[in-house]
Design brief:
mainly alpha; 265 residues; single chain; two-stranded parallel ribbon
Amino acid sequence: MSSGASDAISTERRLTREVWLVLLLSLGQSAVYAAVSLLAKLTAPGGLRNQSATVVGSVTSRSLLDLTYQLLGVAFALIPVLLALHFLSASASGIPGRLRLGAARIGLGGGSLGVRRSVAWGAGLAAFIGIPGLGLYFLARELGINATVIAAALNDHWWNLPVLVLSAIQNAALEEIVVVGFLITRLRQLGMTARGAVLFSALLRGSYHLYQGFGAFIGNAVMGVIFGTFFVRKRTVLPLVIAHAIIDTVAFVGYALLKNTLNLP
């Protein structure tokens, strides 16, 4: 075997290990738990229609202790993001560089779009995805293929809204940087076509939302195709992070503010 072929095999193995490590420490692991959670809901009395899924909930009734848990949850959930950026910062030889190099490779600073245009794109994508997504949720509930989603179930604390915003930003950063920026980049380097990489990314996105039901899987997979295609064409995840943060902030904060008024569960 030639030195070049040996180096290529070594690089492929390294990239494959990186993908497995990042996913099994983050959203790949979440996908497994989501599948088990869905199975539990399907086999529970009343089936999926009569089950609920909480996105952000309290851990304890003690205010400051609950705040501590919430902040720790946000912080530790971002560790796989740093790991992904660490791997992306590596040179061709596999030697890691500074995290900002990894961020630049997936356009986390806006890439060729720049920050202002990224914000505009993010707001537009949020509206394009969020409004139809809400309609899909209600349709899925009527069809009995989705659980009732409780977006925010924190106890009544003074810090609720800031924590909900932080949770939205954390979700956006984790999902878009890992599942779109990192994963699609690595799959393309491993020889997968752009279409195949986008589809794989989209199916993974749908799978870790299975705990909410089949409607959530479909909706998030479609979102994944749109976001993945955008990344392949524009080479920047910043608009996607912004869009996702807006969607989740509106969902979490809106639910918390309107829960009593609209008699939500």
